């Protein structure tokens, strides 16, 4: 595929970097396959969301500023995490006017950051990543991607609208993959960042319902745009030895016949 | 562990009841989805409702004056109460001066807010809640666990037992039809003997001075029309809608969004006093003006109390309404509770106290945002919870340990060097430590979940090793 003219900065969130490097690698390889000119700033850390969602957005300002400095030279910033992307778009407003980094850099990064699937469909204009994944897959719609970034149509909203979300659009083109329907289409998995440790009982109960919904409807795999949701559900699946696996959407879209 | 977290855990420990609670309320959410899908312009309607409410809040005092004038011209007596104790004494005086001691009351979260029942009972007045759910919890001495379905935390066997003890239904009877029939007989005698009737108000139309009351049981109308000669309608100052045209938007939204009905069984308009009857309206502030002046939380006053944010909330459904310990539970309750307008006084110190008591509520959410999307007046509920978290942390209403940890984490995450070093150590620690060191009571994540299996190499390390060019 021919090289695209713009430069794409790859943001690999902290927990993916540390615990799920394979998701970062799949994202990197996939974007390369699709012809993007990718850069990965080596000094990146985190978007600051764990702090801000706990009420300490003030302590996160330094993290925000470091993020903007790392990514301001790129035309686009892409990340395999809807939640982090949403956080940068929605909550970096407090960085504007703070004097820590120029406002135009903040705004440039906020306006040009994309979740991976959205970037592939909307900016690269690709629907088919020529992937092969012969399994029954359930899509867990991560809340921040769904309701925050509008990656799909929320079940709460009535009437017409863009019917098929970006994840479904890409996944439906994957050879061999069969998308299963869930009883509760887009209920939260209960991860919620630090919510998962401050309200462990409720969080796990939500996760368990989510996993059961997938199992009851015959999923072999649960996929999502966010590793955080998957990490939480995987924690429950492994503890209870349940018969379903988790896989990030980037890993599916990057899989090929030879694997 | 926060209070909500403890209470939620307790609620979940009765597994079958907890899953019944979750399923039942999810069922209400599904009914709501079906009902709203039949309205072509539902999203337009929400937008309109929101803008009408915004307009009302922008000019609230003018609209209240207009409403007061219209009502007075109709021969209605209008009172204003600054706080709960003022409302309570206005009502007590009305009753006492006429020598009345028997009151029926239809559903009103506002009178709950002022603890009116306790106050009147303490002063020798019999108050009978005539909404079935409210009557059940009144019998049991409990508070509502949901604003539309106040007894949703009870299974019918529990209600059967309460009725057996209180109104003599056969022991072991939990058949809803029989129980409802018994309640009807019981309430009928109360209606026929009541001297005064108190109601809540869903909407107050400024142009005509009309109060609109929506019920499914017709109990407000029974109370007003059976024998009571004194009618008292209690409303929050935010209940105003300018015109009947505006009202039509809300009557289309309310029941559909609340229970999936096209409209409540009774939507009654009261404008003029009945012959031989006095009609009073009490308009309550109780901290609302203060919330109105707050740019972040102001628009929570748009709430029409449909309860949909509770039905859709995955946390509420699993923790139960009482885990919030505030009269309005769930997402919207978590915004209002720290303000503390439930108190009979609204002094500054009182508010700080409420911030402390309810400081855990804005954190009792995964911030999934379903509440905001289901809200018929488009309150940005989850965003307000996020903002409360920032404010409560700034005001030091969260634990000092948490604040120190967050400061520390902030420093680490701002520097790549510290971050990658900390990450390396964490991964190594998880890999080599014996299981008991990692999985113990201190690790809330690990109580019922496994930690991820840490890889030898981070993505960053992989990239440096393989891609350096
Ligand atoms: S906040 Fe919105 S959804 Fe919740 S009760 Fe009020 S109007 Fe209904």
Structure overview:
The complex is a heterodimer of chains A (259) and B (469). Chain A has 259 residues and is an alpha/beta fold. Chain A contains 13 helices and 8 strands. Chain A folds into 2 domains: 7-123, no CATH class; 136-253, no CATH class. Chain A is 46% helix and 11% strand. In chain A, the strands form 2 sheets. In chain A, strands 2-1-3-4 form a 4-stranded parallel β-sheet, sandwiched between helices. In chain A, strand 7 (221-224), helix 12 (227-239) and strand 8 (245-248) form a beta-alpha-beta unit. Chain A starts with 6 loop residues before the first strand and ends in a 6-residue tail after the last helix. Chain B has 469 residues and is an alpha/beta fold. Chain B has 3 domains: 3-10 and 301-398, Fumarate Reductase Iron-sulfur Protein, Chain B, domain 2, CATH 1.10.1060; 39-286, Rossmann fold (3-Layer(aba) Sandwich); 403-468, no CATH class. Helices cover 53% and strands 10% of the residues of chain B. Chain B is built from 23 helices and 10 strands. Chain B has helices at residues 3-13, 15-37, 42-58, 60-73, 84-97, 109-113, 116-122, 132-140, 156-167, 176-193, 219-225, 244-259, 288-292, 308-312, 314-319, 330-336, 348-357, 370-374, 381-394, 400-413, 416-432, 435-438, 459-467; strands at 77-81, 102-105, 126-129, 196-199, 203-205, 210-215, 230-236, 240-241, 266-270, 278-284. In chain B, the strands form 2 sheets. In chain B, strands 1-10-7-4-2-3 form a 6-stranded parallel β-sheet, with helices on both faces. Chain B has a 4-stranded mixed β-sheet with strand order 8-5-6-9. In chain B, helix 9 crosses helix 10 and helix 16 (330-336) runs parallel beside helix 19. The model of chain B is unreliable at 342-347 (pLDDT under 50). Bound molecules: iron/sulfur cluster. Iron/sulfur cluster binds at residues 303-309, 332, 374-377, 379, 381 of chain B.
């Amino acid at each position: 595929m021919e090289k695209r003219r713009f430069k794409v900065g790859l943001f690999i969130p902290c927990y993916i970097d540390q615990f799920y490097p394979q998701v970062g690698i799949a994202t990197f390889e996939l974007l390369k396959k699709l012809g993007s000119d990718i850069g990965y700033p080596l000094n990146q850390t985190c978007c600051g969301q764990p702090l801000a969602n706990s009420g300490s957005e003030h302590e996160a300002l330094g993290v925000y500023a470091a993020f903007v400095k790392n990514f301001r030279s790129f035309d686009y910033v892409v990340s395999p995490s809807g939640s982090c992307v949403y956080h940068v778009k929605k909550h970096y407003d407090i960085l504007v006017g703070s004097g820590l980094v120029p406002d135009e850099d903040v705004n440039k990064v906020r306006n040009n950051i994309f979740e991976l699937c959205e970037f592939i469909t909307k900016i690269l204009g690709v629907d088919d990543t020529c992937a092969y994944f012969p399994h029954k897959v359930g899509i867990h719609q991560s809340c921040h991607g769904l309701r925050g970034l509008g990656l799909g149509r929320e079940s709460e909203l009535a009437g017409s609208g863009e019917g098929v979300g970006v994840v479904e659009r890409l996944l439906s083109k994957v050879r061999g993959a069969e998308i299963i329907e869930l009883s509760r289409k887009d209920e939260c998995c209960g991860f919620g960042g630090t919510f998962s440790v401050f309200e462990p009982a409720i969080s796990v109960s939500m996760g368990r319902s989510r996993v059961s919904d997938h199992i009851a409807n015959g999923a072999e795999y649960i996929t999502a745009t966010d590793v955080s949701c998957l990490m939480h559900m995987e924690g429950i699946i492994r503890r209870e030895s349940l018969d379903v696996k988790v896989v990030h959407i980037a890993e599916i879209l990057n899989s090929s016949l030879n694997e | 562990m926060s209070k909500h977290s403890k209470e939620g855990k307790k609620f979940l420990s009765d597994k079958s009841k907890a899953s019944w609670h979750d399923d039942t309320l999810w069922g209400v959410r599904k009914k709501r989805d079906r009902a709203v899908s039949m309205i072509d312009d539902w999203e337009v309607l929400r937008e309109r409702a929101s803008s009408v409410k915004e307009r009302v809040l922008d000019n609230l005092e003018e609209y209240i004056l207009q409403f007061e004038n219209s009502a007075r011209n109709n021969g209605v007596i209008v009172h204003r109460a600054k706080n709960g104790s003022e409302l309570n004494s206005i009502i007590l005086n009305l009753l006492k001066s006429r020598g009345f001691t028997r009151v029926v009351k239809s559903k009103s979260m506002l009178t709950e807010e002022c603890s009116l029942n306790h106050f009147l009972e303490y002063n020798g007045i019999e108050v009978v809640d005539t909404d079935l759910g409210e009557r059940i919890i009144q019998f049991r001495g409990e508070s509502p666990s949901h604003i539309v379905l106040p007894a949703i935390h009870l299974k019918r066997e529990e209600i059967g037992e309460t009725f057996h003890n209180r109104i003599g239904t056969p022991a072991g009877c939990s058949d809803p039809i029989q129980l409802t029939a018994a309640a009807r007989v019981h309430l009928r005698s109360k209606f026929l003997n009541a001297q005064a009737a108190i109601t809540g108000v869903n909407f107050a139309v400024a142009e005509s001075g009309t109060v609109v009351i929506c019920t499914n049981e017709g109990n407000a109308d029974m109370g007003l029309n059976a024998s009571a000669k004194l009618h008292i309608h209690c409303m929050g100052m935010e209940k105003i809608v300018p015109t009947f045209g505006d009202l039509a938007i809300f009557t289309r939204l309310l029941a559909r969004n609340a229970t999936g009905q096209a409209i409540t069984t009774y939507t009654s308009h009261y404008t003029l006093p009945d012959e031989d009857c006095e009609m009073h309206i009490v308009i309550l502030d109780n901290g609302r003006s203060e919330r109105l002046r707050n740019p972040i939380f102001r628009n929570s006053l748009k709430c029409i109390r449909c309860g949909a944010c509770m039905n859709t909330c995955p946390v509420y459904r699993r923790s139960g309404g009482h885990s919030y310990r505030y009269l309005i539970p769930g997402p919207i309750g978590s915004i209002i509770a720290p303000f503390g307008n439930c108190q009979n006084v609204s002094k500054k110190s009182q508010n700080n106290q409420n911030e402390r008591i309810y400081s855990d509520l804005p954190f009792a959410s995964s911030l999934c945002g379903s509440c905001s999307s289901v809200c018929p007046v488009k309150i940005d509920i989850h965003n307000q919870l996020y903002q409360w978290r920032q404010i409560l942390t700034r005001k030091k209403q969260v634990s000092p340990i948490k604040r120190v940890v967050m400061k520390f984490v902030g420093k680490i995450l701002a520097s790549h060097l510290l971050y990658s070093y900390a990450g390396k150590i964490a991964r190594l620690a998880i890999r080599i430590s014996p299981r008991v060191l990692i999985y113990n009571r201190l690790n809330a994540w690990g109580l019922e979940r496994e930690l991820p299996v840490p890889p030898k190499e981070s993505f960053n390390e992989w990239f440096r090793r393989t891609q350096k060019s």
